[in-house]
From TrEMBL:
Segments forming domain Protein SirB1 N-terminal: 102-254
Superkingdom as given in the UniProt entry: Bacteria
Pfam hit, one: Transglut_core2
Family membership noted in the UniProt record: Belongs to the UPF0162 family.
InterPro entries (alphabetical): SirB1_N
The protein's name: Protein SirB1 N-terminal domain-containing protein
Organism: Sphingobacterium kyonggiense
Amino acid sequence: MNEKEIKALIYLLDDPDADIFREIEHKLITCGPEVIPLLESSWESSFDPLSQGRIENIVHKIQFDQVKNDLQLWKLNNAEDLLEGLLIVNRYQYPNLNDEQVYFQLAELRRNAWFHLMYDMSPVEKVKLLNNILFREFGLSGNTSNYHDPQNSFIHKVLESKKGNPISLACIYALVAQKLDIPIYGINLPKHFVLAYVEGENNDKVLFYINVFNRGQIMREEDIFAFLRQLNLPISDEYTLPCDNLAIIKRVLRNLIAAYDHIDNAEKKLEVELLLSLIEGGE
């Protein structure tokens, strides 16, 4: 469909006939993201609330379709890239965000830590260095005053506000650490996501755990076991060894579902539930 045909369809968006509108909407959505600039231009020049509202809904549906596609492709082909998964989730709420600002911020945090990193540092010393860079100098902290805010699940908002939930803070911490070849990975602990400093060929030997929500507090294996016993859960590899990136993104989405439920945003809750179902299928 050429630009002239698309503009003709957009011109008809104020048609009062619901069947005609649905047909126009379907045609525009199937055109994909390429039509968004024309839709946005039409929205800016329109003074009709009906037409503007319809344009907003169509743009959102196109962008949501893109997020669904991107997330499924990420699961199939790129799940080793945690940051890309987080950015796809980010684009659900912020479709026009330039990802470069997130890459730049993480690179800057890595560079600040690298300046002070020494070859002969022990694992504990490396964690103390990361804690100093991320929590004291940069100012990251747990969002205790607004724990259920959906913004806690979007990486660029966490970097911007410097406040997040356990899993978003853990993701930032792990991404910076791994870029420095420090083997720190996520632990899918129920009720509280933490990190582990690991060693071994398969990252299957945990030296200690890190509670990022508590400014990088170091935890012993016994602390994790006691926590699991408190929850009446088994002490299993699922809860004590590093999880994969797919498990992390699923948990980010579950947190987002709970956040939208907390603020009674049923529409967004349903959309994120759909995103979660797309990467849970077939397992």
